[in-house]
Amino acid sequence: MHKVIRQMSQLRLQPTLTSGSTLLMPADSTSSTLSQSMLPAALRKSIHTGSGAAGGALCAKWNKHNYGPRKWLDYNKTVHPPQEPEEDPRKAYICHMRTNIKYSPDKMWYIAAFVRGMSVDEALKQLNFVLKKGATDVKETILEAQEMAVQRHNVEYKSNLWIAESFVGKGRVFKGMRRHARGRFGQVEYKHCHYFVRLEEGEPPEHYYQEPQTPEQQYEHWLEQMRSRKVINSL
Q1: Residues 49-59: tens digit of each pLDDT
Q2: Which of 37, 189, 191, 234 is 20 to 30 A from 19 in CA distance terms?
Q3: Nearest 10 degrees: CA dihedral of 214, 216, 217, 222?
Q4: What is the spatial distance between Cα 197 and Cα 127, in angstroms, rounded to a whole number?
Q5: How far apart are CA 88 and CA 65, in angstroms?
Q6: DSSP state of 162
């Protein structure tokens, strides 16, 4: 934690030549220190969530050997064998993700499970009414994946997509110290998460999970389980 605070104090803002926006540049020993509260919201977000050279200047300094999840995007490079004439056409798909989101993975799970199995248009419509901070990142990730499907994966209609997979992974956890009364202190955790999504071409299935059963079907399934069980140490 002290290392992060020291790195934050060595950063300052410099205006660019082309626009009125600001850039995060390393400061000299004579420059004044800068608190994180003075940074713009977009720039403050890029410090934590950026994974490339353009954003997340501090992420590379925290752990240079941690590149985050990379296997998920490799599924887009899969080369499938040619299909037989009588086979159904293979559905196009696109895998996309957003790493190091400043949000708890436990809270993000509810949003990821909410849009699972929906069409893209319906998911974007529903996320507009989810009053949670993580819904914004999920919506932006789905929109990015939708554009990639049209531009890079030869999907003809961007509305003809549905969310086949949507799940969350645990990201970096930074530990800090919180002061309490009478000289005591406690530990606080700043959690990050990774969001993964896979869009598939076509219409969404009617029942993404198990198809609901009637009471009679549930009874028959239970009765079959009871009759097929085995008694241990019996003949």
Answers
A1: 444 444 444 45
A2: 37
A3: 130
A4: 15
A5: 43
A6: E
